[in-house]
Structure formats: C-alpha cells, structure tokens
Known about the structure:
Elements: H1 13-19, E1 29-36, E2 43-44, E3 52-54, H2 56-68, E4 73-79, H3 98-110, E5 115-120, H4 142-159, E6 163-166, H5 173-183, E7 190-197, H6 204-209, H7 229-240, E8 245-249, H8 255-264, E9 269-273, H9 275-286, H10 292-305, E10 310-313, H11 316-321
Parallel strand pairs: 1-3, 1-4, 1-10, 4-5, 5-6, 6-7, 7-8, 8-9, 9-10
Antiparallel strand pairs: 2-3
Helix pairs in contact: 2-3, 3-4, 4-5, 7-8
The structure holds ligand PBG.
Amino acid sequence: MTLVRPRRLRTTPAMRTLVRETRVHPAQLVLPVFVADGIDAERPIASMPGVVQHTLESLRRAAWAAAEAGLGGLMLFGVPREDDKDAAGTCGADPEGILNRGLRAVRDEVGDAIVVMADTCLDEFTDHGHCGLLDAGGRVDNDATVEAYVRLAVAQADAGAHVVGPSGMMDGQVLAIREGLDASGHADVAIIAYAAKYASAFFGPFREAVASSLHGDRRAYQQDPANRREGLREALLDLAEGADMVMVKPAGYYLDVLADVAAASDVPVAAYHVSGEYAMVCAAAERGWIDRDAALAEAVTSIVRAGADIVLTYAALELAARRSE
Ligand code: PBG
C-alpha cells in the first residue's frame, strides 16, 4: 500500500478552497445592535471596539449598511434612560420605549430587506438588572415573568419585529409567547429561542453595552456552564413549545452543546458569538498579540463547522466585507 497523503489536498489555495468543508456566508450572519434613549450622538462601548450605542438616526444608517452588506439579520437591544427603569421593566413593552421605537425606525428604513429581530428580555429595562420580575423574596418569579415577556413580544411584533428572541431562560416562555403572538394577529412573527443559554462570564462587555444595573448573577435561571446534557434538554423543550429557531449562547466555548443541538434540531440552529468572545480578540489584537481578522474569521468558521446555521456576531460586517471564497 502506498502512503496515504492528506496533504495532497492542501497544496494550493485553489485546492484548499475546492475541498473546504465550511464556508461562512454573509447571509447567515446576524449583527447585534444597540439603540439608546436620550443620547444625541453615537456612544462608543469601551470594552467592545467598533461597537456603539446608536441614536435612532445612526441606527437607521447601521441597519441600511447591514442590509447593503448582505447580512442575514439584525438583533436589536434597547438601552433606556436610567430614570425610565423600574422594578417591572415597564418601558420594555411601552410602544414609545426605546427598543420599540428602534424597531419601527429600522423597519421603516429596511422594510423586508433584512430580517429584523428583537431581544425579548427585561434585563435592559429593570432597575435591578434581572431578566425577570422579582417575588417578595427577591427571586425571579418564573410565571409572572413569562406574562411580562408575552407583553414585550407583542409590543415588539407591533413595532415591526420579524422575529422575537426570548433570552431570559424562563420555563415555558416560548409556548406562552407563541400563544400571545397568535392571539394578537402575529402568527407570522417567528421565535428564535435562546434555548441553551449559560450563566457566562463572557457576557461581561455586554453589560457595559446596555448599561446593566445588575448586582449579583443569573445562576438561578441561566444554565450552569458545566452542563452539556441540560443544554440539549432546554433546546428540545423549546422545540416542543414551537420555537422556529433555537440558539446556543455563548458559542465558541459551547461547541459540544451546539453540535448536540444541531444533531437533534429540525429547525435552524443559531449560535451567539458573545461580547466577551469578541472583546478578547480585540484586546489581544490591540496589543499585537493576535491577528484580529484571522482570529474572528476562525472563531466564526468553527462555530459554523460545529453546526450553526446562523451566527450572531459583532464582527458580522467586517466578516462580510472580507469574504474571499
Ligand atoms: C439578555 C441578554 C444578554 C446577552 C444577550 N441577551 C445578557 C445576559 O444574559 O446577561 C449577552 C450578549 C453578549 O454578551 O454579547 N437580554
């Protein structure tokens, strides 16, 4: 027998391109964007170079640029004024709340040219920073929170979201939101469920991005990073409740969970390359310790290789611009 030589398929760039197993296309990338109330100019987020809190005007431009670049979608987060936060996160479901105004502005700008998604959660809007309503003991009350999520989702659909993204990890949130959307004339609005979402240290920079008020942690609702089987369980429950897409988050450190979910899912699977995963690459690159472009491309390629059909990433625009093959 002659020696087996896999290197034959690595000889030239054309050969490597021909046999490449994973290609990341701009149409499968979703750009997360932040819109803030009460600012009159874009505000940079120090821990996420290149990412800003938008005004409504700059949000419109960003949405247009994303559509022009051929991205698949936008995921909107709202940052209210500090004074507008309360224990119930009331401004989230207010049609004049910043996220709902942002959704209307984006849909007005891009129509159906790009898929417009909304983060359906309370943490940006509550003065305690938790993703839900607290009971008398200070614990997040699952069922009361789910009712509030339904109001959020309907308001977001009214404002023009094509897709709502419940991200608070409450039990039963997908089913309740589906019923709420259907009952309010929004049967065509899809749900992307943050299905397997872990209590991750890699959300750190996001908390700056949304000016989070959280003290403490989310371990009573987000998953323990040590649990793989539970990630699949959460995704299967969301599928049974009618999720149109399921998401694993964070992405790069959870490729095992992502592969499990991708193998079991009969709907598109998304993964969220989160703020900390992005910020670490930026920080090392600023010191000249890592090649930013190559590292971000490798990270996202690996996430797709593991089974993601869709990737949410702050690097979506630059990846789309540098796509070579
Ligand atoms: C909750 C939410 C969070 C992120 C997305 N949706 C924060 C959290 O769960 O604490 C994190 C995204 C990121 O880190 O990029 N609304």
